[in-house]
Design brief:
- It contains no helices and 12 strands.
- The chain is mostly beta strands and 190 residues long.
- Strands 1, 2, 3, 4 and 5 form a 5-stranded antiparallel sheet that branches. Strands 6-10-11-12-7 form a 5-stranded antiparallel sheet, with no helix packed on it. It has a two-stranded antiparallel ribbon with strand order 8-9.
- The protein is elongated, with a radius of gyration of 17 Å.
Length: 190
Amino acid sequence: MTDIQTTSASHTWQSGDWKDKPNSQAPYNGIQITGIPQYSDNGTFISAAITITDYTNNPAGISSHIQALTTEQGQTDIPAPEAPVGSAEPEADKSSETSTSAPESTPDNSEATTVATSEQTSTEPDNNQDTQSDSNGESNNAFTAKGWVALESNTMDIFLRVHFMYGLDPVQKEELGYIMGFSTLLKSND
């Protein structure tokens, strides 16, 4: 069995409508995606831990986590985050998990495309319901991202590809394209 190693170099991408100073009312801000690559003992890429944080309805952000996304998984639906047990308000600060790392750099967004749509419900990337529920049946309207992510590889790099919609119903935004890359081999600091 091989041990999994993570590098301290996480990658962070922010949506096209991201603001350094969030709005004072919803929508507060856009989406932030953080990826942390995981490597085997011999330095070969295994997977990436992906965190999608939605700041649309909660200024502190609501996060969805994929612990180990691999190239073999193909298109993986963005999971709905779980609301804490006993929480009457899913949008409360206690229900959110935010990425604590500040963006180290913004990857080249030249291949990512942002499209604003108006009342576009029939062309959403997946067929999730408008409201997502936790295991207790409580609605979690604070997380608006619906769609999928995938890791795709070539001989030198692994790329995170996204296709999802997010935001308030009247005007949702769509993100699609390749937003960040990871090296197939762990680079040493020597």
